[in-house]
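Input chain follows. Return structure tokens only.
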Amino acid sequence: MSLSANTSPTLDNVTPKPEMPVETGAPGTPDRLLFIQSFSGDFSDELRVFDLSPCVCPSTFTEIRSNKFYGAVETAAKDRQNDRSAWAYELKRETFSSNLQIHDASDGGDVAADLDLTILKRYGTWKLKFPPGSRHSIHDLDIRAVSILRKQETFVKDGILYMWDMTGGGKRGALHKTVGGKKALIAEFVAKSWFKNSCVLAVDTKEVDDVVALGTCVAALNRDV
């Protein structure tokens, strides 16, 4: 069952709280497992994203934190690296100064979203843009660092506050969503190393769109390195 209410709030009639609630609600259940692999040594360009949900999707978010699970994901990705049906998205940009485009590999390579990773905005606001009529979001998202010292990123979608929190230790981050006055865990990533080239991302797509989770996750990874 979805954690969300049945109503669909809009930006006009919902004012998100400035901070994520302290009280924790029930976590979501991951139903999609993405493996992000870089071909440039970091997470700023040339990324390939595999959908490994059919073979290694976890039943809880805590499962992805183990080295054993990460190893199983790497093996599954290696086995399917030449299987085009396993490619979910490709992220690339033409030059270092251009935006990072998220191409939907299952939809003819169309651009699903466009991520502004301008270096001059390193501690400012990055924007995740969507084309008109997008099924992923009806509006662009402003991704903001909470502060220079706190490893947290926030954005607002459809009037609801979300936050990537990278303060839990290790090379991982948790995405929380405001649900009924509480914060609910709806996605989580684990990177093998900030300076290596892969990341596992588990998402509850009933609570957050996978492109929204992917784009904001990549922004969080780039902000933190």
